[in-house]
Amino acid sequence: MSYDPQPAGSHYIGGAYVEDKAGAEIAVIYPATGKRIATLHAATPAVIEQALAAAEAAQKDWAKWSPRERGRVLTRAAQIMRERNRELSELETLDTGKPLQETLVADATSGSDALEYFGGLAATLTGEHIQLGDDWVYTIREPLGVCVGIGAWNYPTQIACWKTAPALACGNAMVFKPSETTPLCALKIAEIMVEAGAPAGLFNVVQGYGEVGASLVTDPRVAKVSLTGSAPTGKKVYAAAAGEMKHVTMELGGKSPLIVFDDAELDNAVGGAILGNFYSSGQICSNGTRVFVQRDLVEPFLDRLKERLGGVVAGDPMDEAVNYGPMVSEKQMRIVQEFIRKGKDEGARLVTGGGQMAGAGFFLEPTVFADVTDDMTIAREEIFGPVMSVLAFDTEEEAITRANATPYGLSAGVFTRDISRAHRVIRQLEAGSCFINSYNDAPVEAPFGGVKASGVGRENSKEAINHYSQVRSVYVRMGDVEAPF
Ligand code: NDP
């Protein structure tokens, strides 16, 4: 049975839906039609207080649970999410406009992978013993306390789970604020957590615009802030968290390079570029939007790309035959259109696309520019839409230098049949999540996150544990204390 997009309340706190209509209205728009599907309200100061108090109380008890028992709750939540994958995917499609064909395999499934992985890892989290002759040191790995998660709108379910699973596994509580553009699915995850046995108040969801996030970040009860968002927001949140020396994870934007050498297997390289530019209609932080193609291969690459873009099926995202959806919002569509205009004005060659698609909804054609140079706006700024820039290069050294000439460092990819070159090049690219003969794979087992202006900290993998726990050491002297006087 499908979920009603209108939730029973805007927020989920202490194991129940909460509403306070005094908060600013949030209109939830289905991007495929432009029609309102739900109305929520931003959290008022009273709601924020309720959420933080609930989280603080629940965390104290949760931290005393054995890690194995904590892990069992997460694993059970993962199972429930899998059982309800279709309902959750349909809701995610309504929230984001992403085709059901995608959400069925990439959203609740990725969220449940994280819950399952960290559920399994929980029981293995220990301190260590360090022998120093007769004396010794032991370490205590402990939770941070109340964590705040703030999400972007492109992968709302995945972002909520990627933050919450390691946080809870380590014994923390979470107050999560989704983007106000996509507020629906996090509420369902909160329901599922309680159903799976999480204490009420352990995972709370509050809705709101940036100022709700800002007041969560500065609250003295909050020990850690994990943001997925743009680099400018990241700088603001990082600075606000620094006031009280809070822990942070910043998963920010990028302008990632994808380098295609002339010995690459053409169809795989084109496939990688398609995944890295047009999946989720290009609304993915790690996208390889600067596609550097070795000069001899540029025209064959563009020809094959155009042919394969003929396979785009845009339309009703609930139709599982549709593989291409709208922009998340009219605002985002306008932002992307402005970048397309700049691309044309600054002299890039429009190979295909560039326009809005006919009909209701915020659909933009998959757009490819060639003859793009490094100084053009479309090659420098994150667009967050279906716009690929193809840049020609001659030598390996040149490709590496130009690929690194960006303040960002989220992802990078290389396509070549030369295995030595693949590793040599990837080693020199300044990016956190890299790919060889592939693009945008993000299994929970692999660390995910950026270097340079793309962020700090890592999500997923064992690395995430270090960002949701702290280690204290205890020195144990077995003999007498020697003091100078
Ligand atoms: P924004 O940076 O605009 O917003 C991110 C979140 O932060 C939203 O929930 C937003 O609330 C909130 N926020 C805004 N201002 C503040 C503030 N001062 N204090 C606390 N919270 C605040 O990003 P978008 O939602 O537009 O998402 C797109 C961006 O996210 C892109 O740059 C993309 O690259 C990045 N991203 C990064 C990923 C990664 O893992 N590296 C993955 C996905 C996206 P509100 O929306 O109400 O303003």
From TrEMBL:
Q: Which BP terms does GO give this entry?
A: glycine betaine biosynthetic process from choline
PROSITE patterns listed in its UniProt record: ALDEHYDE_DEHYDR_CYS, ALDEHYDE_DEHYDR_GLU
Is Membrane tagged as a keyword?
Answer: no
User: Where do the catalytic residues lie?
Assistant: E251
* Record-linked SUPFAM superfamilies: ALDH-like (SSF53720)
Tell me which EC number(s) this protein carries.
1.2.1.8
Q: Which InterPro entries match?
A: Ald_DH/histidinol_DH (IPR016161), Ald_DH_C (IPR016163), Ald_DH_CS_CYS (IPR016160), Ald_DH_CS_GLU (IPR029510), Ald_DH_N (IPR016162), Aldehyde_DH_dom (IPR015590), BADH (IPR011264)
What is the uppermost EC class here?
oxidoreductase
Q: Which residues cross the membrane?
A: none
Which terms does the record give in the GO molecular function aspect? betaine-aldehyde dehydrogenase (NAD+) activity; metal ion binding
Q: Which UniProt keywords apply?
A: Metal-binding, NAD, Oxidation, Oxidoreductase, Potassium
Gene3D superfamilies, from UniProt? Aldehyde Dehydrogenase, Chain A, domain 1, Aldehyde Dehydrogenase, Chain A, domain 2
Residues of the Aldehyde dehydrogenase domain = 18-474
Q: Which family does it belong to?
A: Belongs to the aldehyde dehydrogenase family.
Q: What is this protein called?
A: Betaine-aldehyde dehydrogenase
**Organism per entry:** Pseudoroseicyclus tamaricis
Q: What is the lineage of its organism?
A: Bacteria, Pseudomonadati, Pseudomonadota, Alphaproteobacteria, Rhodobacterales
